[in-house]
Design goal:
Elements: E1 6-10, E2 17-23, E3 34-40, E4 46-50, E5 60-64
Antiparallel strand pairs: 1-4, 2-3, 2-5
């Protein structure tokens, strides 16, 4: 985005909980990733705007769902 933030759009099975995580290194163990937000998938895709994306030169995202 123009302000340096990054928008992530994702979807999953309606009613299933999720966590959106980020890390500056893809190879880190899952316990080292930062949880950005949690929620429950709905009928439409979810968009999360990461305003802290400007803090790392590279950032990876991962969706975790049981």
């Amino acid at each position: 985005l123009s302000d340096g933030a990054f928008a992530v759009t994702f979807a999953g099975p309606a009613g299933q909980p999720y966590k959106l995580l980020s890390s500056p290194e893809a190879a880190l163990t899952l316990s080292s990733w930062t949880v950005l937000t949690t929620g429950v998938f709905g009928e439409s895709p979810t968009t999360y705007t990461d305003h802290s994306a400007t803090n790392d030169p590279v950032r990876f995202y991962r969706i975790s769902s049981p």
